[in-house]
Automatic annotation (TrEMBL):
It holds the Pfam family 2OG-FeII_Oxy_2. It comes from Coffea arabica. The gene is LOC113734789. It comes from the Eukaryota. Residues 1-29 are annotated as: Disordered. PROSITE patterns: FE2OG_OXY (PS51471). This is Uncharacterized protein P8A3.02c-like isoform X1. GO terms for cellular component: mitochondrial matrix. Belongs to the alkB family. InterPro entries: AlkB-like, AlkB-like_sf, ALKBH7-like, Oxoglu/Fe-dep_dioxygenase_dom. GO terms for biological process: DNA damage response; fatty acid metabolic process. Residues 142-259 form the Fe2OG dioxygenase domain.
Length: 259
């Protein structure tokens, strides 16, 4: 799989040559990356170190891109006052969802390329070094199921692990309002895992992650199967660094793939 990734990267960007002049070659590489990126800039990925397989891109969509996406969702007739606060699609996704999926693949693809271009071998780092491992990134389609939800201030989601009918690799896009998502280890059959990874005294600890407007979360591996995620938006629960978060209506888009 690593060799397949290298070949695809070479097809997109060409071979890197030690013989090319440093500054000129680096400038050309930067220009190529900007041409590839749909957004015109490279996304900054943040790995949540406490949880393997949990990655965050805080500025995945700009304000203009968020507005365009929300307009596309409204044109579907979803999430209106009369249609309810949740919509689901399976298989035949709307064009905006396909473009969103392609944009996620592109952003992760570029992060793979940047690691390669900096001479950081994937074999040494392992797949945990990437927002999505190659075996998930190159599946077709990347996602074939979506859920769109709206939450009014005070409304959130209870702690859960996504159903096993869905494959590994889940993307969650947040729009319109910032919030804190908490992650906690699952119970019961994973008690041994809790003790090994979190320690007996901290097995019930929750890991907070701030989701800003336009941010994207990717969950795979341990983050997808061993950790529950929840958003408690009741008064007094939405704080970050001691400051109360101004809660507004929040829209989320979840992309998954059926097994």
């Amino acid at each position: 799989m690593e060799e397949e990734v290298r070949m695809l990267l070479q097809d997109a960007f060409g071979e890197s040559s030690d013989g090319e002049g440093g500054d000129e070659a680096q400038e050309r590489k930067s220009q190529d990356l900007n041409k590839l990126s749909i957004f015109g800039e490279i996304q900054n990925w943040e790995r949540i170190d406490q949880i393997k397989g949990l990655w965050l891109c805080r500025d995945f969509l700009s304000p203009d891109q968020q507005s365009s996406l929300l307009s596309a969702i409204q044109k579907e007739g979803w999430l209106s006052e009369f249609s309810g606060n949740q919509a689901m699609r399976f298989g035949n996704l709307p064009q905006w969802a396909i473009e969103l999926s392609n944009s996620i693949k592109e952003a992760v693809f570029v992060s793979h390329y940047l690691s390669e271009s900096r001479n950081l071998p994937t074999r040494d780092k392992g797949k945990e070094a990437y927002p999505l491992p190659p075996e998930l990134l190159w599946r077709e389609p990347l996602f074939d199921q979506l859920i769109a939800n709206t939450y009014q201030p005070g409304e959130g989601i209870c702690a859960h692990v996504d159903l096993m009918r869905f494959d590994d690799g889940i993307a969650i896009l947040s729009l319109e309002s910032s919030c804190v998502m908490h992650f906690s280890l699952v119970e019961d059959e994973l008690s041994d895992y809790r003790e090994e990874k979190a320690g007996k005294n901290s097995s019930s600890a929750k890991i907070p992650v701030l989701l800003t407007e336009g941010s994207l979360v990717l969950m795979w591996g341990e983050a997808r199967y061993f950790w529950k995620h929840e958003i408690n938006r009741k008064p007094g629960f939405q704080k970050w660094m001691g400051q109360e978060i101004d809660q507004r209506k929040r829209t989320s888009i979840t992309l998954r793939k059926l097994c």
